[in-house]
Amino acid sequence: MNHIMFRKHYIIGEENLPPVGEPYVVPANHQNAAMDALVMVLSVDNHSHPYVLAMGGVFWNKVINAFWDWLGMLPAFRMNEEGLVEAVERAKFVVDFASDKMVNEGNPVFLFPETKHHEEHWMRVWVQGYLEIAFLAAKKMNFEKDVKIVPMGHHYSSFYGAQGSYMLHYAEPVSLMPYYERYKEKPRTTMRELNEPFREKVKSMMLYTDDLEHHDLYDFIRLSKVGEEHAVAMDKDPNELPQRLESDQKLWAELEAGVAARPEIADELTATMKEIQTVEKEMLMRYHAGEQKPKNGLALVLSVIAQIVLLPLWVFSLFPSAIMYFVPPMFMPDKETDSYNRAFTQSLQFIVSVVVLFPIFALTALLVLGLVWGWWWQAALWIVLQYPLMLFAWHDGMWMRRTWEQLCMRVFKSKANRLRNLYDRFYGLVKELIG
Question: How many CB atoms lie within 10 A of CB 7?
C-alpha cells in the first residue's frame, strides 16, 4: 500500500485516536471506493484492530470474503442494492455486530456515512448509522462508559494510477457522554442534531465544493500549473499533500467567489478547458501534458536512447506488473462514462496484486523453479525482485509517456501551437477571474 500503490502517505492527528480498548467510531468522507476502507484499516498504528464498513457488493467470493474478514472489513448494505426489507434486516445485524466489537473487544469502527463513493470533491447527506452504532455500544455498557466520535477526512493526490499520495486527517475526539440522557429520551432527534456538525467538521478537512456545475473546471485549474503556482505564492510546498490541500482549499474558495461574481468568464473558461482536453486527446496525450516544459533537442534524443536501452528490462518487468497496472482498468464497465465504476480502478489494482498476483506468482515460482528444477535461490530472488520491478515498470512507463508527449509536441506542430495558445488563453481567463 505505502510503497507500490502510493509513494507518500500522511497521517495527521493520529494522536487524537483514543487509547486501545476505549470504544470510538470514525466517520469519514468517501471518495475512492474500497481504497478508502483499505487505507483506514492499514494505516492505524496504535495496535488496535479496527473494523470498517464497506459496500456489501465487494463481499462476493469466499476467498475475497476471508481476506476482508482478516482485515476487519464488514459489509454495509444499502436499499438501492439489496432492497428495502433485506437491507434493513442486514443493517440491523451489522450495527449490532459492530457495537459488540466495540464493547467486547474494544475495537474501533470506521465507516462512511455517505454510504456511496464518488469522484467529485463534495459530500452527500450523511446517514446516522455511525451514531446508531456508537449509542448502541453505550447502551450495551449501561451508559456508564464514554463512547467517542473521531471525524476523519480523506484526501488523495489522484484517484487513479499508482505512486501518488494519500492523507488521513483525524480531528479531536468528541465525547457522546454529555448526550446520553437526551438520547434516552429522544434518540432520533439527538442523532439528527449531532449528525450535521460532524459532517461539517469532515468537510473542513477535505477539498470541497457545493458548486458541482463547475466542479470539473475547478479541478482542472487545480491540477494545472495554476494550482502549483498558487501553492508557491502561499509559501506552501506543492509536492507535500497536506500543504497542497491547504492551498487548493483557498484556491477553490477564490474560484467559487469569482464564478459567482463573473459567470460569463466561467463559461468561457469551461469552453476553453474542453477545447484543451479535446486537442490533448487527439494528440494521444494526458490532460495537462501540453503544459510540460519542452526539452531541448539533445536532452530529448538522449531520453529516447535511454528508453531504447532500458526497453528489454521494462518488458521483463511487465510480468506481472502489467497485470496489476493495466489489466484491471480494462475490465471496469463503462469506465469512460460511469464515474462510479471508474473509481474502483485503484482499489481493484491493489486487491488483484495483494490477494491474487503476489501469492500465485510466488507459489508458482517456488513450485516450478524450486521444487521442479531445483533453482531455489533463483525462485527466492524472483520473488524479492517483484517489488522493485513493479516500481521500475511504473516509473519507466511514465517516463516513456512523457517522452512520447514531448515528441508529439514537436511532430504535430500545428496542434501543439494551438494547444499552447489555448493554455495561454486559459491562464489569462483564470487570472481575470480571481486576480
Answer: 16
d(CA 276, CA 287): 8
pLDDT tens digits, one per residue of 178-207: 999 999 999 999 999 999 999 999 999 999
Total Cβ atoms within 10 A of residue 38: 23
Could you tell me if 260 and 119 lie in one domain?
no
What b/e string do you get for 180-202 counting C-beta neighbours within 10 Å, with b at 16 or more? beebeeebeebbeebbeebbebb
Q: Are residues 312 and 381 in the same domain?
A: yes
The SS3 assignment for 375 reads: coil
Q: Are residues 275 and 306 in the same domain?
A: no
Q: Is residue 425 part of a domain?
A: no
250 and 275 assigned to the same domain: yes
pTM: predicted TM-score of the whole model, two decimal places: 0.88
Rounded distance between C-alpha atoms, residue 220 and residue 226, angstroms: 9
Domain hosting 220: range is 212-283
> For the residues of 77-98, what is the DSSP string, one character each?
--HHHH-HHHHHHHHHHHHHHH
* 3-state class (DSSP) for residue 6: strand
Q: How far apart are CA 422 and CA 296, in angstroms?
A: 22
Place of cell 516500481: 391
Could you tell me which of 96, 114, 112, 145 has the C-alpha nearest to residue 25?
A: 112
What type of residue is 357? L
Task: Please report the DSSP string for 229-285 in residue order.
Answer: HHHHHTT--TTSHHHHHHHHHHHHHHHHHHHHH-HHHHHHHHHHHHHHHHHHHHTT-
Asked, as a colleague might, if the bond just before 320 is cis with ω within 30 of 0, I would say yes
Residues 134 and 253 in one domain: no
Let me know whether 232 and 325 are in one domain.
Answer: no
Per-residue confidence (pLDDT) for residue 81, from 0 to 100 = 52
| Segment 51-96, tens digit of pLDDT | 888 766 666 667 777 777 777 777 776 555 544 445 566 677 778 8
> What is the spatial distance between Cα 231 and Cα 252, in angstroms, rounded to a whole number?
12
Q: In which order are the strands placed within the sheet that holds 73-76?
A: 73-76, 51-55, 109-111, 24-27, 148-149, 174-175
End-to-end Cα, the chain, rounded Å: 40
C-alpha cell, 267 = 463559461
What's the pLDDT score for residue 318? 85
Same domain, 266 and 318: no
Report the C-alpha gap between 13 and 153 in whole angstroms. Answer: 11
pLDDT band at 254 (very low <50, low <70, confident <90, very high): very high
Q: Are residues 26 and 144 in the same domain?
A: yes
- Which domain-ending residue is among 170, 204, 238? 204
Query: Over the Cα atoms of the chain, what is R_g?
Result: 24
